[in-house]
Amino acid sequence: MVNNQQLTNAAVLFFAKNVQSHISHATIRCVLFKGIDKRYILDSKEIAGNLVVQYEEALKYLISKLNLRYEIENQKGGPRKEILEIPETVFREALVNALCHRSYYEKGAVIMVEIYDDRVEISNPGGLISSITQQEFGTKSFSRNPLIFGLMQRINLVEKVGSGISRMRDAMKESELIEPKFEMGGFFTVIFYRPMVFEKWLEGWSLHLTTPLTKILLAIHDAERVTKAQLSDIIGQGKTSVDNNISKLRSFGILIREGSDKSGKWIINQLPPPAA
């Protein structure tokens, strides 16, 4: 933690009384937007302090701005269980990842937590570390800041080396949400898509869907095991047209077949529509 009688960045980031007096850009900026772009800011917060404080406060901000639902744990009126619209565990993983792997030499940028109507984005300066290729991403682990990573392990914020990406993917899948999207440029960004009322999501796709495509999606939303013969009756077209329309929906990435033709089911993947 000490190098040539100087505190390392890791020591400052964890133990300094005023971290930002030493590393001014070591902060997290949280922003809540109205809509799906950056035009209208509803709320923002700059989070300073040591890395543990930043982690805890950013997590609190996310939880305070997202939707909660409640489930009674048993039929006899037991305690209510709070369920966040996106699993809390994915935010824990993403925040730790951002704090551990950001480039602290990039003085013009901070970690960003951005909340939109349809998604949450968590970004850190530095992009994907050069020791790992995009093909190896998610299967190999190499830290840009090994001292910070080691301290995170010691305080149990890192559960298992190299498993954070798979845990995020698994948690989203278990909650029947879209798999997180990862972008790797000058920034490393993870995008979590928020659950959306089906009708509102379908309306967003209206410019890209014909009437038969819309009818197929509505039918599958109502009955995930609907057959192609039934879809043919619903849209009033033959089997070839049904196959062509299904291929179109698959090409958009919004329709998936799980299982065999006989016993499987359809899954609607509520991706956002292509940019206009």
Characterise the protein shown here.
By secondary structure, this protein is an alpha+beta fold. It has two domains: 2-193, Heat Shock Protein 90, CATH 3.30.565.60; 198-268, Winged helix-like DNA-binding domain superfamily/Winged helix DNA-binding domain (Arc Repressor Mutant, subunit A), CATH 1.10.10. The chain contains ten helices and twelve strands. The chain has a six-stranded mixed sheet with strand order 4-3-7-8-10-9, with helices on one face.
* Shape verdict: elongated
Beta-strand content estimate:
15-25%
The helix tally amounts to: 10
Task: Give a quick account of the main beta sheet: strands, pairing sense, barrel closure.
Answer: 6 strands, mixed
Quick one: how many beta strands? Answer: 12
Ranges where pLDDT stays below 50 over 5 or more residues in a row are none
Overview features:
276 residues, alpha+beta, Heat Shock Protein 90, Arc Repressor Mutant, subunit A, 2 domains, 6-stranded mixed beta sheet, two-stranded antiparallel sheet, 12 strands, 37% helix, 22% strand, elongated
Helix-strand blueprint:
Layout: E1 2-3, E2 6-7, H1 9-15, H2 19-22, E3 28-34, E4 40-47, H3 51-65, E5 68-72, E6 80-84, H4 88-101, E7 111-115, E8 119-125, H5 146-154, H6 164-174, E9 181-184, E10 187-193, H7 198-204, H8 211-222, H9 228-235, H10 239-252, E11 255-258, E12 265-268
Helix pairs in contact: 3-4, 4-5, 4-6, 9-10
